[in-house]
Please model this.
Amino acid sequence: QVQLVESGGGLVQPGGSLRLSCAASGSISTIYRMGWYRQAPGKERELVAVITNGGRTDYADSVKDRFTISRDNAKNTVSLQMNSLKPEDTAVYYCNAYNGWNYDYWGQGTQVTVSS
Model:
């Protein structure tokens, strides 16, 4: 079992920045890929950014050049630096861990609101 706990969400002005963090615990050795997804009201959950255990990253087109995902293996954390935030970035952001073949673990979610 993997437990994921997110932090760092909040209210920010358009153009501002936030940094989300996710701490993983439990059967960490089973994780192949970690990342962030988001879900806005009435919308499906979508991939924001992911990073594999080999360090490869992938981003949604809508956040490329604005968001950066990183991980600290020593601390078992993954972070998402979000810059130049836009109102359309408003969503609940979920930390995700994938075992590579059949199961996704999810954090509780943290609200990010971008509004004047």
The chain has no helices and eleven strands.
